[in-house]
Please model this.
Amino acid sequence: MSTALPSTRTGLLTSIAAVLLIALNLRLGISSAAALLDALRADLGFSPLVAALLPTLPSLCFAAAGAGTGALARRLGAERTVLAAVVALTAGLAVRAVPATWALLAGTVLGMSGLALCNVLLPTLVRTHFPERVGLITGLYTTTLALGATLASAVAVPVAGAVGSPSLGLAVWALPALAATVVWAARTGIRTPGAAPATEPTDRISPWAMARTRLGALVTAYFGLQALNAYAITGWLPSLLSGHGMSEGAAGVVLAVAQAVGIPVSFAVLALAKGPAGLRGAFAGVSAAMLVGFAGLLVAPMALPLVWAVLVGLGLCSFPLVLAVIARSGSGPAQTTALSTLSQSLGYLLAALGPLAVGLLHSATGGWTAPMALLLGTAAAQLAVGTALARGRA
Model:
């Protein structure tokens, strides 16, 4: 899916910078919207249904747009597909500057559809351009992703205050997306030293063929459960804490802590996961941390909020872990793309149920006990599937 062009060391550095800039943007638009959800609702006056839908839209877009990524990449090539994706992301985030509910929803759909393409293709691009450095580059880009999520969660509220409205505060995050667009456009067509041979656009392995394998089924189930838990908690944690009396700014900081934990820990988790025994330990550790963190938020959310945030943050390291499994699986980039497309399209469809169910349960019950009890159950399911997946990789 990549055009073979002359290799240069500059190409290596430019490719790494481009991948990391895209990774930086993969959660900025999502985390900033989560931190500003209550302010947006107060400013725009949208209904509880829209409030439940907004954190759900990223997962729905990732599922719908992600399903067509393989076909689009075969038509345009992976490089041009990612360029189109970051252009869509930039435009979508910019549209959210308009202080209207329709603009918020339309901009989210457009921007998150762009992110969906990047989500599916990044493991393939890492395998193609950095075949000897899959673990290192995966660690770098998931760490950068966590850094972006942390930054947006921590400063979204003060940035919105500085520019005068939550809608403009959301649109500010189009600027780093624009930077990613410029750098990716500059590096498109540069061959990375040591890159795998180019895959022709006609190469095709059906994602549905992967679905009939044990690996495909378990990776998809695990990806969906970890994404459901991650998007539900990042979408609603600030609202949960502010509902218990914490200020919006402080709740955003707690969310930032949860996302910041992954910055140093991701590399350790990926290093641990290189061998079969370490892989089993990594899957068990991150899934158990998520389970305990959710239990704390259910039983005593205000007693030790930072402790629960750290545990949840450890649980969020399940994302780079499953991405590394995807990137290392299969006989080549085409099979990696098939597994990535399957796991992310179906996985994010499952994940969309998390934020929506949490929002609807909270609206129906007026509290957070039922939503967190639901997430406790999905965290337990994630632990069980992760144990089975790690055993199969031994």
User: Anything to note?
Assistant: Residues 9-192+207-393 form a domain with the Growth Hormone; Chain: A; fold (CATH 1.20.1250.20). The two ends are 30 Å apart (CA to CA).
